[in-house]
Design a protein that fits this description.
Blueprint: H1 7-31, H2 38-45, H3 49-55, H4 59-70, H5 86-101, H6 106-116, H7 121-149, H8 157-172, H9 186-204
Length: 206
């Protein structure tokens, strides 16, 4: 007899996990990381404490999962962009980055980290090492590949990735931390990405 969980049980487990992550994010934002207990999260998620502890034995493990889940959209936009066509590749990456930054909950996640960072620096470490850094490194690798392919001359892919992502996030995302009504029109976002791409091409064209 197989000991593997059935498709039904896997689906139920996934639904409970999603409910836990959603409840935890909401409670962390409303009450703070320190003031929110795992028992309270279990109650808000509609699961037993045993179910929650089985998946997330500590609050830190739960927060790590929230970060990983939030940044997990990196490969959701289709195949890897071609390193031989810099304009098309950067455009695809730019729009994927916009989609990621504007996902529901992303702003809330950053607010949690910023609010709790003085007392819980490990939250910032989790956000950086498990979220932002892997995504950033994927863009850096693309720019390095473009350099090898000859579509760009990028001696420092790390710096170039910082420049490109910064141009986009400074318009699309960072204002949302201070302005609750910041919601640029799609055409404005499209232009921001296009201008970032053209700036990169002007700087790094072979």
């Amino acid at each position: 007899m197989s000991t593997e969980p059935s498709a039904y049980h896997r689906r139920v487990a996934a639904e409970k996990r999603a409910a836990i992550l959603k409840a935890a994010t909401g409670l962390f934002l409303a009450s703070g990381y320190d003031s929110t207990s795992l028992a309270r999260i279990a109650e808000a998620a509609g699961v037993s404490k045993a179910t929650l502890f089985k998946q997330f034995p500590t609050k830190a493990a739960l927060f790590d999962a929230i970060v990983t889940e939030s940044w997990g959209a990196e490969d959701s936009g289709g195949p890897d962009p071609s390193a031989e066509d810099l304009r098309a590749g950067l455009t695809a990456i730019g729009h994927r980055y916009v989609e990621l930054l504007t996902r529901p909950g992303m702003t809330a996640l950053f607010r949690i980290v910023i609010a709790e960072l003085p007392r819980f620096p490990e939250l910032g470490e989790a956000q950086f090492s498990q979220g932002k850094l892997p995504y950033f490194e994927s863009v850096s690798r693309y720019l390095a590949a473009a350099h090898v392919a000859g579509s760009a001359k990028v001696e420092d892919p790390t710096l170039a990735a910082t420049q490109f992502l910064g141009m986009i996030s400074n318009f699309v995302f960072w204002p949302t931390l201070l302005l609750t009504d910041w919601a640029p029109e799609p055409s404005a976002i499209e232009r921001a990405v296009a201008e970032a791409v053209e700036t990169m091409i002007a700087r790094y064209r072979p």
